[in-house]
TrEMBL record, chains A, B:
Gene3D superfamilies: Electron Transport, Fmn-binding Protein, Chain A (2.30.110.10). Residues 20-171 form the Flavin reductase like domain. Transmembrane segments: none annotated. Belongs to the flavoredoxin family. Keywords: Flavoprotein. Its cofactor is FMN. This is Flavin reductase family protein. Pfam families: Flavin_Reduct. It comes from the Bacteria. One of its GO terms (molecular function) is FMN binding. It comes from Zophobihabitans entericus.
Length: 198, 198
């Protein structure tokens, strides 16, 4: 698939700018790994919690195998899928590893790793954040709410560079996807700017 | 302003569908009131937490007067501003009531009320949710994170109806706005659908 990233387009993001991957509210892919056991799921209920250092919240149902891996390993990745990954996002969000242990292979989820981190990342995303779980057992148990601090982040520089999105100058297949319900999404659209002092 | 709602376009949303106002990640306006004291602020760090009943999370800085009003009254509104309210959203997010007690009057924020609720709502939004604060002092103090349960919700039926957004059939001025940083936003764009079983 021509829109999948190759290493040449991936560059690190300064940690205090990483929250901007999420600020405009895209649907995400969450992944985690413990030993050889790994999983990827979709999550729309994700938000920035802080920016310096960047922290995120994500809601993860108790039935998710990804959740088990996060609780075991203490780490997870938050990734920003693009229009090119729309079907993959719906599919990894529809099938549970608990029902089909071969989910990732069957769905042909294209994974890669960054140095120093044993967390599978999905090729073709516009951005990737690796988060260290900040344990809050009451939130996790009562609300399925997980908090993570971003410890590393990268973007596809064709669409996110110098701390900003550049959707209007990139291929439409690199636009972020924003979930409504079922298989229904919207792509991010056109820029709109206000003079901050006006 | 022609795009401001008039009462004829506002209809209640079933509470279990209210989360869909937020699911695609729009930037929001938060308002609260205690007695005659009221405030409106902008917030991008807002997420769905649950859907039945609909619950939300929102991050609100300690310097915000809106936060004081939420803590006093136990209620707040989460509203979905449209492109027509872009400048207003930036302005209410830039000026604090603590610096200018006449903020709402000076900025000419057009407010209205729904029966039974003493919370100011901003005209021209695409959706409005009134939330009852679920007190979680540790989250509020440590993370500036507030949890609310939606107790009433309405939409502008020109753009959200029957539990779904209809941006593609509405005027562009009714598109939701998605914040990146400073005065830089993106509008929500075009629909993208996947056959859920494909």
């Amino acid at each position: 698939m021509s829109t999948l990233n190759t290493q040449q387009f991936i560059a690190p993001i300064a940690l205090e700018k990483a929250y901007r991957l999420l600020n405009h509210g895209p649907t995400t892919l969450i992944s985690a790994q413990c030993g050889e056991d790994r999983d990827v799921m979709a999550a729309a209920w994700v938000s920035v919690l802080d920016f310096n250092p960047s922290k995120v919240t994500v809601v993860i149902d108790k039935i998710s195998h990804t959740r088990t891996l996060i609780e075991k390993s203490g780490f997870f990745a938050v990734q920003i899928p693009t229009a090119a990954l729309l079907k993959l996002t719906v599919n990894v969000g529809s099938v549970s590893m608990k029902d089909d242990p071969n989910k990732l292979t069957k769905l042909k989820v294209p994974l890669f790793y960054q140095n120093d981190f044993n967390i599978p990342l999905v090729q073709g995303c516009a951005g990737w954040m690796i988060c260290k779980l900040i344990k809050e057992p009451h939130n996790q148990q009562t609300y399925d709410l997980f908090i993570g601090e971003v410890v590393a982040a990268w973007s596809d520089t064709r669409v996110f560079k110098d701390g900003h999105w550049h959707f209007e100058n990139a291929d439409n297949s690199l636009r972020t996807i924003h979930h409504v319900a079922g298989g229904h999404f919207y792509l991010i659209g056109e820029p709109a700017d206000v003079d901050f002092d006006s």
